Amino acid sequence: MQNYNVRVMNLFSRHTFLLSTALLICCLLLPAGCTRDDKHPVPWVYVDFVINIEFTQNIELNAIGGWAYYTGGHRGILIYRVSHDEFRAFDRACPHEPYADCRIVVENPPFAECPCCNSVFNLLDGSPFTGPSRHPLRAYRTVFNFPYLQVSNY
């Protein structure tokens, strides 16, 4: 019985040591992964508006692949229609140079380009396609309930 108790104590001690070591390693390495690059370079700006896509000023959004520019965000907002009931909204500020006096422009949908740094972004998810930008476009939340489209960042 005494031999059994010693084995249980050794197993418990080994388990406690391994668990403590793993916890210590996680605590030491986790903060190292949180660098400034993990934050999005385009500043957060409150966005919350609703548009009616049936209005004539929003006619560009009636077709799949349609897009339009709106005021708001940091440098304006770009809305792109992905499918019948799905939209994407992005800030027009380039994440590579968010404070430059440039705005993302759409010339060949589903791609948009920054005229300053020539970064190209995919409008299906905002990811950088080519160019120096390492960050995606700042995305805003969209909720579509025909004919209303809400764009917000909360």
List the helices and strands and how they pair.
Blueprint: H1 2-29, E1 48-52, E2 67-70, E3 77-83, E4 86-91, E5 105-108, E6 111-113, E7 120-122, E8 128-130, E9 139-145, E10 148-152
Antiparallel strand pairs: 1-10, 2-3, 3-4, 4-9, 5-6, 6-7, 7-8, 9-10
Strand line-up in the sheet with most strands: 1-10-9-4-3-2
What number of structural domains do the residues give? 2
- How are helices and strands ordered from N to C? HEEEEEEEEEE
The low-pLDDT segments are 26-30, 32-38
Strand percentage lies at 25-35%
Q: What is the first-to-last residue Cα distance? A: 62 Å
**Biggest β-sheet strands, sense, barrel:** 6 strands, antiparallel
Helices, by number, come to 1
Structure description:
The chain contains one helix and ten strands; from the N terminus they run H-E-E-E-E-E-E-E-E-E-E. With 154 residues, it is of the alpha+beta class. It folds into two domains: 33 residues; 105 residues, Rieske Iron-sulfur Protein. The strands form two sheets. It has a six-stranded antiparallel β-sheet with strand order 1-10-9-4-3-2, with no helix packed on it. A hairpin with a 2-residue loop joins strand 9 and strand 10. The longest helix has 28 residues.
